Structures are given as structure tokens and as C-alpha cells.
Amino acid sequence: xxxxxxxxxxxxxxxxxxxxxxxxxxxxxxxxxxxxxxxxxxxxxxxxxxxxxxxxxxxxxxxxxxxxxxxxxxxxxxxxxxxxxxxxxxxxxxxxxxxxxxxxxxxxxxxxxxxxxxxxxxxxxxxxxxxxxxxxxxxxxxxxxxxxxxxxxxxxxxxxxxxxxxxxxxxxxxxxxxxxxxxxxxxxxxxxxxx
Amino acid sequence: xxxxxxxxxxxxxxxxxxxxxxxxxxxxxxxxxxxxxxxxxxxxxxxxxxxxxxxxxxxxxxxxxxxxxxxxxxxxxxxxxxxxxxxxxxxxxxxxxxxxxxxxxxxxxxxxxxxxxxxxxxxxxxxxxxxxxxxxxxxxxxxxxxxxxxxxxxxxxxxxxxxxxxxxxxxxxxxxxxxxxxxxxxxxxxxxxxxxxxxxxxxxxxxxxxxxxxxxxxxxxxxxxxxxxxxxxxxxxxxxxxxxxxxxxxxxxxxxxxxxxxxxxxxxxxxxxxxxxxxxxxxxxxxxxxxxxxxxxxxxxxxxxxxxxxxxxxxxxxxxxxxxxxxxxxxxxxxxxxxxxxxxxxxxxxxxxxxxxxxxxxxxxxxxxxxxxxxxxxxxxxxxxxxxxxxxxxxxxxxxxxxxxxxxxxxxxxxxxxxxxxxxxxxx
Amino acid sequence: xxxxxxxxxxxxxxxxxxxxxxxxxxxxxxxxxxxxxxxxxxxxxxxxxxxxxxxxxxxxxxxxxxxxxxxxxxxxxxxxxxxxxxxxxxxxxxxxxxxxxxxxxxxxxxxxxxxxxxxxxxxxxxxxxxxxxxxxxxxxxxxxxxxxxxxxxxxxxxxxxxxxxxxx
Lengths: 195, 428, 168
Hints:
- The complex is a heterotrimer.
- Chain A is an alpha+beta fold.
- Chain A has helices at residues 67-111, 150-163, 174-181, and strands at 126-132, 138-145, 183-188.
- The longest helix of chain A has 45 residues, at 67-111.
- By secondary structure, chain B is mainly β.
- Chain B has helices at 13-16, 55-65, 89-93, 139-155; strands at 9-11, 25-29, 37-41, 69-71, 99-108, 111-120, 125-135, 164-173, 176-185, 192-197, 201-206, 212-217, 224-229, 235-237, 245-250, 256-261, 268-273, 279-281, 289-294, 300-305, 312-317, 323-325, 333-338, 344-351, 354-361, 367-369, 377-381, 387-394, 397-404, 410-412, 419-425.
- In chain B, the strands form 8 sheets. Chain B has a 5-stranded mixed sheet, with helices on one face. A 4-stranded antiparallel sheet of chain B has the order 10-9-8-31, with no helix packed on it. Chain B has a 4-stranded antiparallel sheet with strand order 11-12-13-14, with no helix packed on it.
- Chain B is built from 4 helices and 31 strands.
- Strand 3 (183-188) of chain A pairs parallel with strand 2 (25-29) of chain B.
């Protein structure tokens, strides 16, 4: 039995790599992806969507600890953002379908109430900017681009007024409504006139 | 309501260009239904007192007759505003009115002045306020003026409610036919007798200032052309040739007539200078050339000719004497009239043995049969080009009918005693 | 001496017209204002010489057809018309008087064009008479177009009666 040996331990602080440049690796920042409004995300059924806006780019990498660990984390990171992207993509697709079918609904209601004046001719075009609220009510209509013919412009405004409230818009997820239908442009350009 | 195809297009600009966050969804509306516009005419009175004519009713009838409006019945109205400030829009939205007309009449020393306004109901906006005034005995004219203004504001084209129509009636009296030349308002009111005769009367035509008529009368034992002033009833006989003297048409500048004479052996088109009395022959073909009508620019005359073997419509350019054929579909096209746009030709067109009124676009060549009545003749176009009148038969009786140039509106005019024929719409 | 052939032809035409006339009046409007231009005496006798050269019929002037009928849109004289006109020509050569040929059309088509058609028909008759030696200056041609119908119906039978030239 020897006498225990005592070891002088020295704590070594591993320099946290003075350069935190976690080399973003393009993926890291998903970059809000100039996702043009109309397309946006979501599944058909407003999935709870835990993940709020991918807007919030996932925090970059957690402090890598050891190299191997760092790699794994990077991989996981990449995987996570790839997943997020795919979700966004799918959301965008189904949103597109929604926008398309509710646009058709608005088209039917407006066209079905559009009485063209006898002075209307093919080639005339008027653009209205309308504002809706989620109940489908039209709260404002303005002529953004006149056709140059007062009676023609007025017939377009009348068509919107007569269409009344677009009730079915209430079925839309609010995100889709907000991004697409709160402010809407209607371009009236008749293609079915004989003259 | 017209069936709507599912054709529409989504403007996808916003998708392709990831631009501003504010890119709006755009929907293109490319079809419509063209239902008549619902309009309410609030009674127009003299501060509540009635007038010799019910102005609101005259305007209702005018607008309804055009086929483009559906007036709201007075008995359904909840209030009777006379001024824009008195309008409670909800009363009118409930009725489904798109437009509302309000007005009031003031008597100013024997003359009436009417202040009237057109309001858009949904947006609660005033479209216009106007004034019209006139002598006490012209209330109907003031009402028609209101109709014209309202019609123009909503449709974009001038109204034709202040115009008149000349026509011929043939009534058997004691076993013999009596012929009458008449003029009435476009709505049929204030019918006036201009000529009463035991011999046929034909082809009335208006002067461009709408103050005179020329027509053919057989009163001398032969057809001859006469000129008559509506206000003074003064008449002049203009022609007295052997053979045909017919189909007079007044030039747009008021200085000449085009007409038909067969004194040189066969029916040819002549022009007649109203000032000098000189006749100038314009066609030189052994076939029948008849039914001349001036083009709005006064440079050409369109007419019927069977020089091609059967009646077709031709155009003669006066300066060059060039004659060109205008109609190529069907074996009988006659009695041409040109609308004031200079490009819409209406005529009598035989299709499958039936005589209809057809229109042809002289620019595109499109021919369109407008009527489903047959034995149709004498089409005459309103000065605003929107509507035409023509003569047809209902059973064995001659009646007048109206059809819009797009064939969307059709109706028969209320029947009168005897046969009615040869309508001529005044140019203003 | 009368041969039957042509006589029957003309008679048949007249009888047919008479029958057509009858049937149209009961459906037509009640005006009853016939501008019937076929004198009944003519209808009942209607005898005409076939060759037209026999002199015996000349005194029965009123029995020679004075109305000639035409096909739709045509101005061609039919054989019966020519035969009758030949007789009239004879009479006129022997006894020149002023006559009027009134041309008519049925109601179909446009009025002024029908005036021209009526005139064309009357001219056919006039030209024939002139050809047969009648002095043209005796003949006045007037067209009434569709303005003076013999029958007021809107059917083939009425129309056939209206497409005519009358010699007066």
C-alpha cells in the first residue's frame, strides 16, 4: 500500500472557438423565401400548425459542442428546414386551390349581375379595387382604372353592388382571406359582346 | 339569367413575380347577363299637386319600352322623395332598385320648370341633377326629355324618346279603302292626321330637320311625290311623270331628294334639287333600280336593284358613279336603310321563303336576321341606332313592331284601327 | 265553232280564282272591302275562242279576259293572257281608244320594289299589244304595286289573285 497519489488537475477551458461564425450553411436561414403572398402555406384543413410562421427562421445552429456533434446537429437542422419547406410548399399548393375556387365563386356572383350598357363594346376595360371583410361584405369599391366610358364603369360598380355579400368567403381560413381576398382587383373586360 | 360558362382567368402575376407584398389577387370578369336595369321613378309632381300629365308614368313607359329597364311599380314604393336630400336609401334598396329618379315641378308664369336627379341606390350616390323647362302644353315633351337624360346616363347612348314616327293607315270605310298619313310621338301619343285620301299613300320620309315629310300619293290617278310641312300643312306636288314616281329620300344636308322615276323606260334612281327643281339621273341600267336611301355622309346612295337577277342592295358613290354590291347572302335583299353609324345596314331579307328584317355590318359582313315575324317590310331605325320599327302582319292585319338592333328586345305596337304600315322614324 | 281546249283552260283559271276568292273572304278580316276587280259577269261566261282569229267573238268584248295573272316575281304573259290580248289588239286596231293597263303585285316583298314589278307586268302586256299592231300612245301604264289588292288574304290563293294586270 502505497500512499495515494494526488493528481493536480487542471481545468482546461476549451476556447469556444473564437469564431462563432457558425458558417450558416445556406440552409440554416430558411430565409422567409420571398413567398409571394397568394401562395402561402397550410394544408387544406387548417392544421393547427404548431409551427408558426416559418417566418421565424429557426435559430441557427445550437452551439456546436464537438465536431461530430456539430455535424449531426447541422444535419438535423438541414432536415428540419427541408421539412419546413416542404410543408410550406404543400400549404402553398392547397392555398392555391382555395384561392382558385373562391375566385370562381366571386366571378360567378359578379358576372351573374353584370348588365352591360348597350354602348359597351369588346375592348373596353375597367378595373375596380374592392375591399372585403371576412364576412364577405364589400366595404369599399373604387375605380382604379376607368374605361373612359362612364356608363361602362358604372355598370361594373353596379355588378359588384348587386352581387351582395360574398357569404362563402367566411369558410376560408383567415390567413387565406387576409392574403388574398381582403383587397381584390376586378378587371371587367367583356368577351361575349357581339359588337 | 344567361348560363355562365366556367370560363374565367385568374391573373397570376402576383405568383410569378415575388414582388411587393401588396400585390392583389386579380379576377377578370369576361361575361355578363344583361338583365334589364331596375329603376324607380318617384312621382314628379308640383310640390305634391298633380299635373295634367303624370310625368313619372310617361318616363316609366319610355324606359320600359326601350327593353333595357324594368321600372319599379309605384304601388310598391315606400316613400315619394322629390329631392336628393329626401331620399332614404334603404326604402329603395329593399325594392331592389339600382337607380332612382326624383324630381319636382315649379310653375313659373305659365311655364313649367322641372328639377330632377338620378341617384345610384347601392352606393347612395347622385349621378346628376338637371333642369328642363318648357311651356305648359308641352309637359309630355319635358317628360320625354327626362327619359332621354336618364337613358343616356345609364346606357351611354342618347335616348330617342322625344322623336316621332310617321306611318300610313288603310281603313275600310263603307266598303272602300281610306288611306291616312299620320304622325305620332314615339310612344304612340298625340297622333295627328296629315292627309286623308281615297287613293293609296306610300313611302313617307322625313326631312333632316324633322319639320317636313315627302311621300307618294295616288290622288291624281297616278303615283306622284308630294312635300308637306307638318306645322303649316302646306303641300307641294314635286313630280308628275308618267310611270313610277316613288321612294323619295331626303339628303342629310336637306338640299336634295333621291327618288325613282321610270319615265326613261325602266325604274332608275334620280336626284332632285329642292332649290332648282332639277332632276339628275344617277343610275343607267335596264334592271329595276329603286328604294334609294342616302348614307349619313351624303356622298352615296344605297338602293335595291335586280341587275344581278334578283333584288339585292347596292351602293352608288355619287361623285365617281361607281356602283358596288353590298349584299351576297340570300336571293332577296331590299329596302335598305343605314343607321346613323354608317355601318349598320338594315333591310328586308328573304330566308326560306319568309321575309324578315335583317341587319348587316358593312365592315365585318356579318348578317343577322332580327325578326321572327314574317311578311316583314319597311324597317326604319331610331336616330340613336338602338331600335328599329317595321311593318308586319298579325293574322290578316297590318301592324307595326319594334326590335332592338341586337335583337334582344322585341314587341308589337298596340294595334290600331285598320292596317298600319310604312313607319318612318323622325331623325330627331 | 268553238273548240274546247283553250276555253276550258281560261274557264278553269277563272273558276279557280272565284273559288279562291270565296275561301279567302271568310277568313279575312271583316272589312269586306273587296277591291274585287273581276266582274262577276265575266266569271260566269268566260268563253274564248282558241285561235283568237275568228271574228265572231269581237262583239262580246266584255267576255274577253281583262285581267291577266302572273307567277311570283315574274312578268311573263301566260298563253291565256296572250290569247286574250290578241283579241283586244284586234279590237283596238279596229277601234282605237285610250286604255289603261294597271299592274299589281302580291304583298310579299317590299312596296316600292313591288311597284316596279307591277309596272313590269303591265309593260309586258303593253309591249305585246304594240307588237300586235296597237298604237302605243293609246296605252297608259300605271302600277299599283301591292297597294290595291284584289284579295286581302295572306295565303297563296289570295296572292295568286293579286299578281295581275288589269286592262281598263
